[in-house]
Amino acid sequence: MPATALLMIIDGAIAILTAAMPELFKLTKGGTVSPEDQQARLDKINQLRTDAAFEGPEWIKSGS
Amino acid sequence: MKVLKLSFALILAAVSVGLLANGCASLDPAGPYKGDAALYQADGAITSSYELVHAFVKWEQERRPALASTPEITYYADYCREHSKEWVRTALALRDAYATAPNGDPAALNQALAVLREAAAQAAKYLLAATAATAPVSP
């Protein structure tokens, strides 16, 4: 496989992962997670408590 | 092909580590987690797994006609659609129990997080494989 194709694959994979999980690639300042970043994570957790997190066309099974 | 497998392995390893620990940084005790790194990491595992599975089912739904030759992808996406809410809600309930009583047995929470991680890893595998399949194979 040519190097350019491999780079495209890795670029594409990283783009997907970055879009899906931005926190995975976020650096912390001085190795400490700020209160704001902690609150952001808590807000995400609380969003998952709502039914809206599992609504939308993407959550409808293919045969439905 | 070996290089491709290696790149998959490296990326999946990064995902796994991210889902497992999501950073080893310390927490500012003034934040809402009050320095509880285990709870922060558990929440990171839950949200990251959800985000990845959500990206996967959305990706599958948008490309379903093009994925007709790989029905296992749609099958797994449907499996995620059927169970994701239950997986996340179970993890949240056990996470809340841990937050209330941090000295309790974390085994059930760890098991719930393992289920989420497995779903996310499988979703990542399909996403990365499809990315590779659409890459050019000749210079």
Secondary structure layout:
The complex is a heterodimer of chains A (64) and B (139).
Chain A: H1 3-20, E1 32-33, H2 35-47
Chain B: H1 2-20, E1 26-27, H2 37-62, H3 71-100, H4 107-133
Structural commentary:
The complex is a heterodimer of chains A (64) and B (139). Chain A is mostly helical and 64 residues long. Chain A has one domain. Chain A is flat. By secondary structure, chain B is mostly helical. Chain B has a single domain, classed as Up-down Bundle (Four Helix Bundle (Hemerythrin (Met), subunit A)). Chain B contains four helices and one strand. In chain B, helix 1 packs antiparallel against helix 4. The model of chain B has no long low-confidence stretch (mean pLDDT 84). Chains A and B meet through helix 1, strand 1 and helix 2 of A and helix 1, strand 1, helix 2, helix 3 and helix 4 of B.
N-to-C span of chain B: 15 Å
Parts with pLDDT < 50 across at least 5 consecutive residues of chain A: none
Which CATH-level-2 architecture of chain B? Up-down Bundle
For the largest beta-sheet of chain B, the strand count, sense and barrel status come to: none
